[in-house]
Amino acid sequence: MRTRDLELGADVADEVADFVGALAREADLPASKTYWLRLAVEEITINIGQHGYRGRGPMRLTSDIGPDRVWLRIEDEAPAFDPRSHDSGPRLESPPPEREVGGLGLLLALHRLDGFCYERVGGRNRNTLTMFRSSAGHDPGLVDGVSDDVEERADHR
After folding, report:
1. Which architecture, in CATH terms, is 2-149?
2. Among 12, 52, 82, 127, which residue's beta carbon has the most beta carbons within 10 A?
3. Cβ(21)–Cβ(34) under 8 Å?
4. pLDDT tens digits, residue range 11-43?
5. Region 85-110: what's the mean pLDDT?
6. Integer Cα distance of 60 and 106 in angstroms
7. Are 83 and 128 in contact (CB under 8 A)?
8. Residues 105, 86: contact at Cβ < 8 Å?
9. Crossing angle of helices 31-47/13-27, nearest 10°?
10. SS3 of 61, please?
11. Which residues, in sequence order, are bridge partners of residue 65?
12. Is 97 helix (H, G, I), strand (E, B) or coil?
């Protein structure tokens, strides 16, 4: 299991990309899955800094590799926010030339993950992203994108 503590508000994009890249290489994730995982992590971390903290604040990245999947957890102390609650519908209803810039990154990123779970635990936002290591289909044993063994290992760090 890997963990990295970061201070949002500083330029952490390279550190986040390096963390995801190391996880993907170690797990031998296909390039397309690596791309979508990195995009999702970047979207969530940028939103935490810009909209959650509105500046500086602590964030923890934790990841692990299982036999058939990888997971990456993003934890922060910003106000509660479940990324799945972001409604992109009104933006999508407007013709593309008339849309405001932004607001679609979470929609794109979260729909390309194999699993996603949000929880508010001990005053912290906990976003857990899951990708299967191969292009095989979803595991019916996943509950909200995270299996019990992933949750158990992450809680015992």
Report:
1. 2-Layer Sandwich (3.30)
2. 127
3. yes
4. 888 999 999 999 999 999 999 999 999 999 999
5. 65
6. 19
7. no
8. no
9. 150
10. strand
11. 70
12. helix
Using DSSP bridges, classify how beta strands 2-8 and 57-65 pair: parallel, antiparallel or unpaired. antiparallel
Q: Which two tokens stand for residue 81?
A: 């926010």
DSSP tally for the chain: helices H, then strands E: 5, 5
Condensed to tens digits (0 to 9), the pLDDT of residues 35-73 reads: 999 999 999 998 899 889 998 999 999 999 999 999 999
Q: Which residue has the tokens 């963390």?
A: 19
Q: What is the pTM of this model?
A: 0.79
Write out the two tokens for 41: 């992590």
> Residue 36's closest CA among 2, 3, 70, 60?
70
- Tokens 């509660």: give the residue: 80
The residue that leads in pLDDT, 114 or 95, is 114
Structure tokens at 119: 């929880």
Distance CA 135, CA 83 (A): 25
Structure tokens at 143: 């509950």
CA 43/CA 20 separation, integer angstroms: 13
Structure tokens at 6: 């970061």
